[in-house]
């Protein structure tokens, strides 16, 4: 059964796609155009009642929320492809901890920057310099904690690449690329080495080519 991923052009669906590639799971993509409002169509809202991307359909199983989807596939195919969850329950605990950090400490600030810098004109408003400055500062403080953590372990949850690292890829790519805020990564030695490592994985390079 080929997994259908809705909305491949955007960052959150890419979180799912890079996971499917790491796990060696076959997938196909279904374009959904946010600018045209396709995520608000009655058909799409039947799949994702909050109107966000992504959704996956796997046979008659439908799942939304990108981090729920990556946890589902990492667990379902634990022994296939890259193990993304750790080998012991303690390692798993750390993966979960850093996934939560990504979602609740890292993501809100990088998401604000994304909306203000990259999508404000498409959404019809002017970027708010105050929000940009504050978000940049707050993200810097979060990255200071990452720097400390990554001075002690190669990846966020330990010695192996995991869902916790993977989950950072799409929005950090916006940060270092179109947002031109690469300095936030590069001025922190261990964060910089970590970013080079995870963003050079063949799975992520493949996502960028899609
Ligand atoms: N928590 C959701 C958030 C997904 C999200 O923010 N998706 C964006 C695209 S990257 C989106 O659909 N934005 C349009 C909207 O929410 O109206 C997830 O991780 O799946």
Structural commentary:
With 210 residues, the protein is of the alpha+beta class. It is 58% helix and 8% strand. The protein is built from ten helices and four strands. The chain has helices spanning 11-23, 42-47, 66-76, 89-123, 129-150, 163-166, 169-176, 183-186, 189-199, 202-209; strands at 3-6, 27-30, 55-58, 61-64. Strands 2-1-3-4 form a four-stranded mixed β-sheet, covered by helices on one side. Strand 1, helix 1 and strand 2 form a beta-alpha-beta unit. It starts with a strand and ends with a helix. The mean pLDDT is 97. Glutathione (GSH) binds at residues 10-12, 34, 39, 51-54, 65-67.
Characteristic key phrases:
about 210 residues; alpha+beta; four-stranded mixed sheet; globular; binds glutathione
């Amino acid at each position: 059964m080929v997994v259908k991923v809705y909305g491949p052009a955007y960052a959150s669906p890419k979180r799912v796609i890079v996971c499917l590639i790491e796990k060696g799971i076959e997938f196909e993509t279904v374009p959904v155009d946010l600018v045209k409002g396709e995520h608000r169509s009655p058909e799409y809202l039947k799949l994702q009642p909050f109107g966000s991307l992504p959704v996956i359909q796997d046979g008659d199983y439908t799942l939304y929320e990108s981090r729920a989807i990556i946890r589902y596939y990492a667990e379902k195919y634990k022994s296939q492809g890259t193990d993304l969850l750790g080998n012991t329950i303690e390692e798993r605990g750390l993966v979960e901890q850093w996934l939560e950090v990504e979602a609740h400490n890292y993501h809100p600030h990088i998401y604000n920057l994304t909306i203000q810098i990259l999508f404000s004109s498409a959404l019809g408003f002017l970027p708010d310099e105050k929000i940009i400055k504050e978000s940049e500062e707050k993200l810097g403080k979060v990255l200071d904690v990452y720097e400390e953590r990554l001075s002690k372990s190669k990846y966020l949850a330990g010695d192996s690449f995991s869902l916790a690292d993977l989950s950072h890829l799409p929005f950090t790519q916006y940060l270092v690329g179109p947002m031109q805020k690469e300095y936030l990564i590069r001025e922190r030695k261990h964060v910089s080495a970590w970013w080079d490592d995870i963003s050079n994985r063949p799975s992520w390079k493949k996502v960028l080519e899609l």
